[in-house]
Amino acid sequence: MALALRHLGGEPAVVLFEPFPSRYDVIKAATTWYQWDETRDVLAAECDAVVVLDTCSRMQLEPLVDYLVRGPRTLVIDHHATRDSIGTRPADLRLFDDSASATCLLVAEWVRAAGVPLDELLATALQIGLATDTGWFRFSNTDPRTLRVAAELLEAGAQFHTLYRALYQQDHPAKLRLIARVLTGLELEADGRLAVMKLRPADLEATGADLTMTEELANEAGRLGCIEATLLFTEEPDGEIRVNFRSKRALDVSQLATRFGGGGHARAAGARVRGEWDVTVPRVIAETIEALQASE
Ligand SMILES: [Mn+2]
């Protein structure tokens, strides 16, 4: 998720809540990336429009919810089903399409419609959005519309093999050790139909990994033939518990995530839960098993 704030008469400032992930270094030169925590006062004072991308959930935008209420006009571009009231003031705009596989698909279609020249860097940035949101064109959201745009981006120079190497073949040994450790602790529930993985601070300490290395971890259990769904619990430094939900077929995990204050898609969703680990984890597991049984 990124946030673009436009400076009056200047270049757009792209703002992230977290440090720029090094796996995306291939598009780092595309713009200047700012961190909201470090630059909020300057950005808030100088920008004249805000574009919120890939979320319309107050929870995910928590650091700047107050700012968005009082701030300049806002455009929200998103493909998720969770929609809070962000971008609903009279001068605001919302561009929603939950049939789009990725927010980058909407942006790419806008680029095409507006006749913006598609250089290699822009094409690469958009291709990353398509590839990552479709699980490298494997998930059920991989439709002809996505592949047509992907082909245009390929023509503009966004090659899959170079991107794959840049995104997925740059891991640090600590990340592989963390994956190994979490998979070793994997438990199967509901007669093997639910995989449960847990990640606590001790796991990071033992492997030398950090939380930026947990992307994709929730998908690892999906290789098991028996499972219908996966839960990944991560204990964050502030004590909050992040829950990643994955489903292969019938279970709509976005509904499940919404019950815990999160949201997402039918096959992939997430939530952050405040509460005791020993109470919250069993509760989420129990509710997921119940939902699994009801989805049959
Ligand atoms: Mn998305």
What's the arrangement of secondary structure elements?
Layout: E1 2-7, E2 12-16, E3 33-35, H1 36-46, E4 47-53, H2 65-70, E5 73-78, E6 93-96, H3 103-114, H4 120-133, H5 144-155, H6 160-168, H7 173-184, E7 187-189, E8 194-199, H8 201-207, E9 229-235, E10 241-247, H9 253-259, E11 263-264, E12 268-273, H10 277-294
The protein binds manganese (II) ion.
The site of manganese (II) ion has 5 residues, from loops.
Shape verdict:
globular
Name the CATH architecture of the largest domain: Alpha-Beta Complex
Largest sheet: 6 strands, mixed
| Radius of gyration, in angstroms, nearest whole number | 20 Å
- Please provide the count of β strands: 12
How many DSSP H or I helices?
Answer: 10
H/E element order: EEEHEHEEHHHHHEEHEEHEEH
Strand content: 15-25%
* Residues in helix, %: 25-40%
